Amino acid sequence: MGPWKKDYLDLVLVPCSLLLMFGYHLFLLYRYLKCPHTTVVGYENHNMRAWVERMFQVEVKDRGPAISVISSNITAATALSSISLVLSSLIGAWIGSSTANIFTNSYIYGSRTPSIVYIKYIALLSCFLVAFTCFVQTARHFIHANFLISMPNSDIPVGCIEREVIKGSNFWLIGLRSLCFAITLILWIFGPIPMFACSVIMVGCCLISTKTQHLCIGMSQFRDKNSRGRLIRRKKQSIG
């Protein structure tokens, strides 16, 4: 067995970091598909369905707040997509420039071979491109929902608008998670140890934020209000 080399850290810590990040998101996807009410994603989608239903109970002329909410989401998605595109362009120019080896000095404790350096930049570029694509799709779905909500005298089903809003929210979430991966890969430029530490901290923060015991209470309240409203309408119809 040969002597220990610091290049071996990339072979150990980088796969562990990626496995930790991908493992958490696969676990989150499994929970969302099996028990959506136990995840923040399912809770937010539930709230959006309730929000769309409430907005359709008012007249078109009174739907200004709904249009303002969707417009603010469109503005945020457009801003983040622009930032992702600019960062992708900068990384592409950085790779093609002669200063691409600026982080290959002796202060980096890990592999500094040209192949590893280019893998870092390409992986980082891929994350920003995925984020850009997701934020563009977010804006597209929210714009479509904005058109449908503001359409007067329409017989569009509520479920159609709900799907557009939820799709936009899901693409927004994927874009944000891509930026989280990008943050981890940025720290990989400075070595595998900061990358591994960042992935552990990020997964820990995500696990803390996905504790939804109090969220289930809010969901049950929405259900109670919806069921109570339906019961009142049925009683009025039976009396009439």
UniProtKB/TrEMBL annotation:
PANTHER family: DUF599 DOMAIN-CONTAINING PROTEIN, OS02G0292800 PROTEIN. The lineage of its organism: Eukaryota, Viridiplantae, Streptophyta, Embryophyta, Tracheophyta. Keywords: Membrane, Transmembrane, Transmembrane helix. It comes from Sesamum angolense. Pfam families: DUF599. This is Uncharacterized protein. The keyword Transmembrane applies. The chain crosses the membrane at residues 12-30, 73-95, 115-136.
